[in-house]
Amino acid sequence: MAKCVRFYETGGPEVLRYEDVEVGDPGPGEVRLRHVAVGLNYADTYFRNGTYPIPLPNGIGVEASGVVTAIGPNVDNVKEGERVTYTGFINTLGAYSTERLVPAAPLIKLPESISFETAAAMTMRGLTSSYLMRRIYDFKAGDTILLHAAAGGVGLIVSQWAKLLGLNVIGTVSTQAKAELATAHGCDHIINYSHENVAHRVRELTDGEGVHVVFDSVGKDTFMSSLDSLKRRGLLVCVGTASGPIPPFDPQLLAMKGSLYMTRPALADYIADPEEKATLASELFDHVGSGRINIEINQHYALQDAVQAHRDLEARKTTGSSIFVI
């Protein structure tokens, strides 16, 4: 019998339950998928704690890789036996499972150069990095970015991609071990926010000018320092709220700090068009398959250990990517 992780009420990691589940035949537009690896993402905690409201009970997880074992009517983008990966939002919720039914539309065929484990560790983070690097800002060689959580899954990919584009990367971390990891993946300068003033240090590193773009996945705790790190007419890209949502503020603040820009993008809007998703995925797979970008998988969990995995994630004990191995 297939296994899955579900939750019946919102709350801390302890609400997650490891259960048996019956997997039927795929309906129209669906496939049955046997998972090989499942991604663990910070967004999963938002579903679990109620930040992203969903009907309950429900499954959890939005990213996995595996093999198509059956296809339903009106499916023409994949075939039985093909290797695939996927990520999404509500339409792919339930990835913490050994086998499941899933809509065929989000599935991406997996090239032989990419393993199942690598795919589960990078589909969401990699596509996020892809649109951040290729769609958000018209980067030019020599531009400088500030990258919060530089030792995280997205951070390690973005820093490597940024170096391919000729950018200068300033990364923030909380420990020496994370500093060493971020440096090894392309960060030119490291700021340890546990004992350094981020905005002050950024000004020192940029001769008082500030950076072109800040990628901020932390949210509430770093919002003001992110704004204070930007050059005139710089861009703040809010890509997560690990420390909590950004509090309401008067937009006049952006003008006062240098006519700044701010955006809060979502991956779903950059992969909604199949053609654009294919373009972003193709470039990502090419970089990873050729070894230009390395996917760091530093935590492996069994599916039944989802509670501990969420505890580690929220305690910021993880680096790089984390996966469940089926």
Please render the helix and strand layout as text.
Elements: E1 2-7, E2 16-21, E3 30-40, H1 42-49, E4 58-59, E5 63-71, E6 83-87, E7 99-103, E8 108-109, H2 116-134, E9 144-147, H3 153-164, E10 168-173, H4 176-184, E11 189-192, H5 198-205, E12 211-216, H6 223-228, E13 230-238, H7 252-256, E14 261-263, H8 274-289, E15 297-301, H9 306-314, E16 321-325
Parallel strand pairs: 9-10, 9-12, 10-11, 12-13, 13-14, 15-16
Antiparallel strand pairs: 1-2, 1-4, 3-5, 3-7, 3-16, 5-6, 6-8
Helix pairs in contact: 2-3, 2-8
Notes on the protein architecture:
The mean pLDDT is 96. With 326 residues, the chain is an alpha/beta fold. 45% of the residues are buried. It has helices at residues 42-49, 116-134, 153-164, 176-184, 198-205, 223-228, 252-256, 274-289, 306-314, and strands at 2-7, 16-21, 30-40, 58-59, 63-71, 83-87, 99-103, 108-109, 144-147, 168-173, 189-192, 211-216, 230-238, 261-263, 297-301, 321-325. Helix 2 crosses helix 3 and helix 2 crosses helix 8. The chain has two domains: 2-125 and 268-325, Medium-chain alcohol dehydrogenases, catalytic domain (Quinone Oxidoreductase, Chain A, domain 1), CATH 3.90.180; 137-264, Rossmann fold. Helix content is 28%, strand content 27%. Strands 3, 5, 6, 7, 8, 15 and 16 form a seven-stranded mixed β-sheet that branches. Strands 11-10-9-12-13-14 form a six-stranded parallel β-sheet, sandwiched between helices. It has a three-stranded antiparallel β-sheet with strand order 2-1-4, with no helix packed on it. The chain contains nine helices and 16 strands.
